[in-house]
Amino acid sequence: MVYISTRGNHSPVSSSEAICMGMVPQGGLFVPESIPHLSKDFLYSSASYQTVAREVLSRFLTDFTSEELDLCINKAYNSEKFGSDSVTSQIQLENGLSILELWHGPTAAFKDVALQIMPHLLQISKKKINSSSHTSILVATSGDTG
Fold first, then answer.
1. Catalytic residue status for 111
2. Sorting pLDDT into bands at 50, 70 and 90, what band is 141?
3. pTM score of the predicted model
4. Exactly one of 111, 126, 127, 128 is catalytic; which is it?
5. To the nearest 10°, the Cα dihedral for 130, 132, 136, 137?
6. Distance from the CA of 8 to the CA of which of 42, 105, 109, 124 falls in 20 to 30 A?
7. CA angle at residue 40 from 93 to 53, to 5 degrees?
8. What is the average per-residue pLDDT within 50-57?
9. 108-112: long-range contacts (C-beta < 8 A, 24 or more apart)?
10. DSSP β-bridge partners for residue 32
């Protein structure tokens, strides 16, 4: 999978390079050159969060091996961090309605579901591009976490 600049101002890069750079240095974002297809059968299956993550990430992070993805997924999405291996909980209400609880992660914010894997992907990406530079991660709250 190749990642290109939204502004056309950078040569295409691998997923590892895009992860390490974060943004295009001259402005813009890295986006996949094409969007992989996921079947409706898979999307509507009752697969575990880890299985879905593995399937989706393997299509977007093609320079990662299966073993590398499994390592990242297992470190990020486990019962130690989320209280159960299911990561999210779905609560059934009446009339066929349900609520998806996204607050069971370490910071009790919905962002945990998406972002717990990021430092693990970054660590492997840095090795892939032979980067030994120090990385500082600066985050900001959107107001719901403090």
1. yes
2. confident
3. 0.89
4. 111
5. 20
6. 124
7. 80
8. 96
9. 108/145, 109/144, 109/145, 110/144, 111/145, 112/81, 112/82
10. 3
